[in-house]
Design a protein that fits this description.
By secondary structure, the chain is α+β, with helices and mostly antiparallel strands. The protein is built from 3 helices and 5 strands; from the N terminus they run βααββαββ. Helix content is 28%, strand content 24%. The chain has a 5-stranded antiparallel beta sheet, covered by helices on one side. A hairpin with a 3-residue loop joins strand 2 and strand 3. Helix 1 runs antiparallel to helix 2 and helix 2 packs antiparallel against helix 3. The radius of gyration is 21 Å and the shape is elongated.
């Protein structure tokens, strides 16, 4: 900015306007045929969050919640599928505005209801992913059908 200042200074007030243009929405799709697909999704989301200038605790919360949703899709949507079936596809989408990030994690597998011990005050050693998603994000919805499950999550961004 100092290089743009005239040698004699300014004759009037100067205002600087900075606009942060959110990046294009992210869409990443991977076949759930190998656990490394989860790392690929996380890497793409991490790059996108950086491009969106979303960092700190907000980025950490988003990464954990998205990672849990994708891990659930990988583990649960593929259970019981015949070996000859096409691999389950996992799609991560992310969209940012100045005030909010919306993520979806969708799979083409089949829904498995949460284990019965989930409602107990001290759940077992597994099954915490949905709890984490609700704790870290501002809204979480799950829609399941015979054709797959979609988890939609939003995170309000601090100004």
């Amino acid at each position: 900015m100092s290089a743009m200042t005239p040698a004699a200074g300014y004759d009037d007030d100067v205002a600087v306007l900075i606009y942060r243009h959110p990046p294009a929405p992210l869409t990443a799709q991977v076949p759930a045929d190998d656990p490394s697909c989860l790392a690929a999704l996380r890497a793409r989301l991490r790059q996108w969050l950086s491009a969106a200038s979303i960092g700190g605790q907000e980025a950490t919360d988003i990464m954990i919640a998205a990672g849990e949703a994708a891990a659930n899709a990988f583990e649960h949507a593929t259970t019981g599928r015949p070996a000859s079936a096409e691999p389950v596809q996992i799609t991560l989408t992310a969209h940012a505005t100045q005030a909010r990030v919306q993520l979806t994690v969708a799979d083409t597998g089949r829904w498995r209801p949460p284990p019965a011990d989930r409602t107990h005050p001290a759940p077992g050693t597994r099954g915490h992913g949905i709890i984490f998603m609700h704790a870290l994000m501002d809204t979480v919805t799950m829609d399941s059908s015979a054709h797959g499950t979609t988890v939609t999550m939003t995170k309000d961004l601090k100004p």
